[in-house]
């Protein structure tokens, strides 16, 4: 009986830990949520064929510290840069008019990704509490590499980093906990 209770506890604990994930939403949902509860937005701009994008999903966005921090401080958006989702941002509706259904490999870039000046995947794009674009950061990031960016932007530290030297100093003094 004692072993059965222990086994049951372990199964429940393991399930609750592994079930934890980032609360992904669409860009339109995040912008609507900002209207009632202002919060910064982080957008994972990916494509279905991108190997590093899949690796970030598997290694970075499953990290407990990353999940907890993003869910607490951001509205998290998954955005397929070659998809067909309509995004209404700053009174303009972005689409992907050149998308080719059934095409293998790369497809046409969505106009929203183009407007954000995303040229490589994955890219993380950050927005202010009011939806104003902050910055796009290209490339795969491990949880440890991502930590400095998500904390710097969540805490508004990026506003003080106006030179390459101040960014280097910030990096040097940053103490990660992930």
Describe the structure.
There is one protein chain. The protein has 178 residues and is an alpha/beta fold. The chain has helices spanning 2-18, 27-36, 51-60, 64-73, 111-115, 143-154, 164-173, and strands spanning 24-25, 40-46, 74-80, 87-89, 92-94, 123-127, 133-138. The chain has a five-stranded mixed beta sheet with strand order 1-3-2-6-7, sandwiched between helices. A hairpin with a 5-residue loop joins strand 6 and strand 7 (133-138). The chain is globular, with a radius of gyration of 19 Å.
Number of helices: 7
| Rg on CA atoms, Å | 19 Å
- Largest sheet report: 5 strands, mixed
Q: Order of strands across the biggest sheet?
A: 1-3-2-6-7
Terminal Cα separation, in Å?
38 Å
Q: Indicate the mean pLDDT.
A: 91
Fraction in helix: 40-55%
Beta-strand percentage range: 15-25%
- Summing up helix and strand content along with how strands pair, one would put the structural category as alpha/beta
Order of helices and strands: HEHEHHEEEHEEHH
